[in-house]
Give the backbone structure.
Amino acid sequence: MNECRRCRVDRAERHGAHGFGHTVKELARAWRAEFDRRFRPMGLSDTSWVVIWLLSEHGTLPQGRVAELLGVEGPTLVRLLDRMEKEGWVRRQPSETDRRVKLVALTDQARPVYDAMLGIGFALRDELMDGIPEEHVTIAHTVMLRLLDKLNGLDGLDGLSGQDGQDGGEAGACGPCRPETTD
């Protein structure tokens, strides 16, 4: 299939906003693939290390919230959690306040894995950032956070409709920290 010059997002032609989304998608995919490659010797699959990271950072979470944060459907998460439970990484327990909710928690066996993951992650970050001036990294990160805030405010399209440059997301609100009532 032939693409017109405008539709082709060639690296040499990317500048400013042109091709930005495509570049972000490529970077996220490549970054995650490298994490996966480095975590594989620890026995972690591409998604299981993300579950360990989420639960280490946020504590016990409702199963539905974990699925939402991973961007997977419930049945897909159930299969993953079944495997992770069998391997001793996580445990599921019913919520004491809502019997419809299953809570997912890390086991003691998974906690040292998180520490090792941090070491590997920091090493990868340092390798990738080597040679890039800190002020460039700061600007890039600020732009990405601003875009993320705007996208997170898109529920009612208020994130992109602010008149004075203000985005519509809740400042400091973290998705995993919002209350969850159902699985």
